Amino acid sequence: MVGGRKIGKDKVQLLKQALTAASSSLKLANQLLNEIDRMGGAGELPGLVGKYDGRFMVTEAGKKYPVPDNYSAKTRLVYGDRLKMIEGPMGRQFKLVEKLPRVEEEAQLVVKDGQFEALGKGDSYKLLQSAVKYWGGEEGDKLKILLPEGEKNIPFAALEEIVGKKPGARRGEKPGAERVAKKPAEKKVVREERVEKKLVAKKPAAKTTKKVLTKKEVKTTRAIKKAPPEKKPVAAKPTKKEEKAPAKKEAAPIDEEELR
Which pTM was predicted? Predict the structure, then answer.
């Protein structure tokens, strides 16, 4: 409901068709752009031109535009390659319009200031960090790098290959990170300590010890418990004759003087 009015099913259907058509148009435009690039016609398309410096495309005016790492790694761009940035339906896209002659060299992977670098024949070169991680690179690995032929003092090299490894081996680890073996023994100790703490916390208060009775004492106790309680003697009730009989008078004491 929009503005208090219900949207008809027909309008919803038309909206879905429009979105589908727009998506198809974008895919078609991207395919045509890739075909033009493969045929070498990207240079004829309007756009900005600049040189690749390892991270950016730098125009003659000095403006820098970041080049996606996946495109740089896939194309294996080297320092000085000429690129064209084309604004299209899929956003900014970079196309290689002039590929410099390349030379392949061997190098060693090192870590400098927390970043992977390639140590060549007396000089070091910056690398695409994402490319090194994609190959599962570790410090000390042997590399094959690409450099522009005949150029000196080049700050950047393209990663061609890490010897003995396959691309996609391991991703997302920090440069120079060492894999530490897990110590199951330490974990067990920690668990035992936790269990002991729980036992101490749940330990009930000490109970008083009970005296163990002998068989004789047990029998005596049972006999005392079973014995009936002592009855108090009840005075005998006087018979009817005793009640009717007059009370006997006590004899008067004898006077010793009268007897004399």
Answer: 0.52
